[in-house]
From TrEMBL:
Role description: Catalyzes the condensation of pantoate with beta-alanine in an ATP-dependent reaction via a pantoyl-adenylate intermediate.
CDD domains xref list: PanC
Keyword annotations of the record: ATP-binding, Cytoplasm, Ligase, Nucleotide-binding, Pantothenate biosynthesis
Pfam families xrefs: Pantoate_ligase (PF02569)
Stated name of the protein: Pantothenate synthetase
Miscellaneous note of the record: The reaction proceeds by a bi uni uni bi ping pong mechanism.
Residues noted as binding ATP in the record, renumbered to the chain: 27-34, 152-155, 181, 189-192
Binding-site residues, beta-alanine: 62
Major enzyme class: ligase
Major localization listed first in the record, in broad terms: cytoplasm
This protein's encoding gene: panC
Length: 277
């Protein structure tokens, strides 16, 4: 396995590659959800010349104030431990640039805009977030030239935005969605879970429980919002049922495949989750 920190080294490492590249983009602080992306990428390899590349980059463009915020400063950075996990999982190259390497002239002038898809739900609470995501993913696609890229279903809005970006910009990348990995208690795996104490984690289960109740049609959407708002120590941001492709709201009860997704804050930690309906 190679750990590469510059774009020049990356170009050299990929110059003579004859097979396909499978990319797993991450921000590090890896957990079982990330490793499931790597496992999916490894499972799709069909030739000894194929390669799995993982990126680790905490992208300031997708945080408030372009990274001038505590959320960005406090985001866990565990490169050595992450590299060991990725090597054990079968990653061939880790691309782990710093901010100056990715944005040598500072904040870029030209961005990829995520439009209406990126301005609702998470985008309403985190303005500009998905513009930052789309911009850095487009840069990674340009640098690495992957044939396939793997994204977790937990970040359903991100997945939808990336799929639309690839379609609208005619990018030659096959986007593969990988199912959510949950803990034994049902909590969706997230790098932010490490900020949860035992009580916070227990309270956070209200989100997955409410989504499951919607999935199983045990409650309607309005009742679900009320129950989640009243759950212990939970601050509800949103709970919606939308089209998986367009993210537009769907009238309850849905008569076609739909996605229930929500965001809460528990103990100062913001968490998101979703389930197919």
């Amino acid at each position: 396995m190679k750990l590469i920190k510059t774009k020049a080294e990356l170009v050299d490492a990929l110059a003579d590659l004859r097979g396909h590249i499978a990319l797993v983009p991450t921000m590090g602080a890896l957990h079982d959800g990330h490793l499931s992306l790597v496992a999916a990428a490894r499972a799709d390899i069909s030739s000894a010349d194929d390669m799995v590349v993982a990126s680790i980059f905490v992208n300031p463009l997708q945080f408030a104030q372009l990274g001038d915020c505590d959320d960005y400063r406090n985001y866990p950075r565990t490169l050595d431990a992450d590299a060991q996990l990725l090597e054990s999982a079968g990653v061939d190259i880790i691309f782990a640039p710093d901010v100056a390497e990715m944005y040598p002239q500072g904040t870029p002038e030209v961005w990829v805009r995520s439009g209406e898809m990126g301005s609702q739900l998470e985008g309403a609470s985190r303005p500009g977030h998905f513009d930052g995501v789309a911009t850095v993913v487009a840069k990674l696609f340009s640098l690495i030239r992957p044939n396939r890229a793997y994204f977790g279903q937990k970040d359903a809005q991100q997945l939808a935005v990336i799929k639309r970006m690839v379609h609208d910009l005619d990018l030659r990348v096959d986007i593969r969605a990988v199912p959510i990995i949950r803990g034994a208690d049902g909590l969706a795996e997230s790098s932010r879970n490490q900020h949860l104490g035992a009580t916070d984690r227990q309270n956070a289960l209200a989100l997955s429980a409410t989504l499951a109740a919607l999935r199983d049609r045990r409650i309607d959407l309005e009742q679900a919002r009320v129950e989640l708002s009243n759950a212990d120590a939970v601050d509800l941001d949103y709970l919606e049922v939308v089209s998986p492709e367009t993210l537009q709201p769907i009238t309850w009860p849905p008569t076609a495949p739909a996605l229930a997704l929500g965001a809460i804050t528990v103990g100062g930690t913001r968490l998101i989750d979703n389930m197919d309906i």
